[in-house]
Amino acid sequence: MAKIRVHVWIKGRVQGVCFRAYTQEKAETLGLTGWVRNLLNGRVEAVFEGEEAGVREMVKWCHRGPSYAEVTEVTVGEEEYKGEFQRFTLRF
């Protein structure tokens, strides 16, 4: 199966609701690598790499997030797969 990479920006009530921690947990469950971080403008940004099915499922999850989040917009940019990450991490 093909490996892909996506760069995602999530908008809404996505900070202060453990969005990053749940994102990391979900990504690890799906066997993905990459990172997630909060942005100063209130959005969350993430990069996911891995098997296409897992990445697509992760993007779908980003549209709803954890139970306390209120996602209003998700922007997804497909990028060239690089395989540069060893695991999925939280960035600050």
N-to-C order of helices and strands: EHEEHEE
Structural class by sheet pairing and helices: alpha+beta
Oligomer: single chain
The CATH class turns out to be: Alpha Beta
The name of the CATH topology is: Alpha-Beta Plaits
**Low-confidence segments, ≥5 residues, pLDDT <50?**
none
Kindly report how far apart the N and C termini lie.
Answer: 32 Å
If you average the pLDDT, what whole number results? 97
Q: Classify the helix fraction into a percent range.
A: 10-25%
Largest sheet: 5 strands, mixed
Number of helices: 2
Physical arrangement of strands within the biggest beta sheet: 4-1-3-2-5
Quick one: overall form?
Answer: globular
Number of domains: 1
Corresponding CATH architecture? 2-Layer Sandwich
**What proportion strand?**
35-45%
- Quick one: how many beta strands? 5
- Rg calc: 12 Å
What does this 3D model show about the protein?
This protein has 92 residues and is an alpha+beta fold. It has a single domain (3-85), classed as 2-Layer Sandwich (Alpha-Beta Plaits), CATH 3.30.70. It contains two helices and five strands; from the N terminus they run E-H-E-E-H-E-E. Strands 4-1-3-2-5 form a five-stranded mixed beta sheet, covered by helices on one side.
Sum this structure up briefly.
This protein is of the alpha+beta class. It contains two helices and five strands.
